[in-house]
Write a structure and sequence with these properties.
Layout (H helix, E strand, L loop, with lengths): L1 H17 L7 E2 L1 H10 L3 E7 L4 H9 L4 H10 E7 L6 E3 L2 E3 L12 H6 L8 E5 L5 E6 L4 H12 L8 H7 L5
Parallel strand pairs: 1-3, 2-3
Antiparallel strand pairs: 2-6, 4-5, 6-7
C-alpha cells in the first residue's frame, strides 16, 4: 500500500511540474506599447492568417517548444497580428484597419505597413524598443531553425555582425 501511495504522489508531482512550463505571453500591440514604457524590450510580431497551414504548424511546433517559450518570454514582447483582422488597431498615433472588412482577401493596413506590402505568411517582424523595425523574417521555422534567429536579435548580435557571420558561428543550445 505504501508503494502505491508513493507512486501516486510521484505521478501527481511529475504531472504538476510537467504542466508548469512557461508559455509565450502574446500581447496586443497596444499592451506592448504600455509594457514597453515600464520595461523596454525588443518586440516580436507574428503576422499570420487563419487559413495559413505553416502558421498553425509554427504555433504548435515552434512557439510551444519550452526553450523557445522561455527565451521569447525573457527577451521580447510578443504580438500576434492576424493580417486579415477586422479590428481597428491604434499604433503610434495612427488608426489601422482592414479596408475590406466584409470580404475575403482584405489585408489589414497595419500588417501591410509592417511587411512593406509583401504579403506572405508566416512572416515575423522584429522591432527595437523604440518600435523601429530591425528586420522582417519570412517563412516557417522549426524550433532548431528558429533558435539562431531569435538569439541573433534577442542577444543584440545584429548590432555587431552580419546574419551570415553569426549563423556560420552559431552553436545551438537546443
Amino acid at each position: 500500500m505504501k508503494k502505491l501511495i508513493t507512486l501516486f504522489f510521484l505521478f501527481i508531482g511529475t504531472s504538476i511540474i510537467g504542466n508548469s512550463q512557461e508559455t509565450i505571453k502574446w500581447m496586443s500591440i497596444e499592451e506592448v506599447v504600455e509594457a514597453n514604457k515600464v520595461e523596454p524590450k525588443l518586440i516580436f510580431v507574428d503576422v499570420y492568417t487563419n487559413w495559413c497551414g505553416w502558421c498553425k504548424k509554427m504555433d504548435k511546433a515552434t512557439f510551444k517548444n519550452p526553450k523557445v517559450e522561455a527565451y521569447m518570454s525573457d527577451n521580447y514582447y510578443c504580438v500576434k497580428i492576424n493580417a486579415e483582422t477586422k479590428d481597428t488597431i491604434n499604433f503610434q498615433g495612427r488608426k489601422f484597419s482592414n479596408p475590406k472588412p466584409e470580404g475575403q482577401k482584405g489585408v489589414h493596413s497595419l500588417a501591410r505597413a509592417l511587411l512593406d506590402g509583401q504579403m506572405s505568411y508566416p512572416k515575423f517582424v522584429v522591432m527595437n524598443s523604440k518600435f523601429e523595425r530591425i528586420s522582417i523574417v519570412p517563412g516557417y521555422h522549426g524550433p532548431e531553425d528558429f533558435e539562431p534567429i531569435m538569439k541573433y536579435f534577442g542577444d543584440e548580435n545584429y548590432l555587431t555582425s552580419s546574419w551570415d557571420d553569426y549563423k556560420s558561428n552559431f552553436t545551438s543550445s537546443f
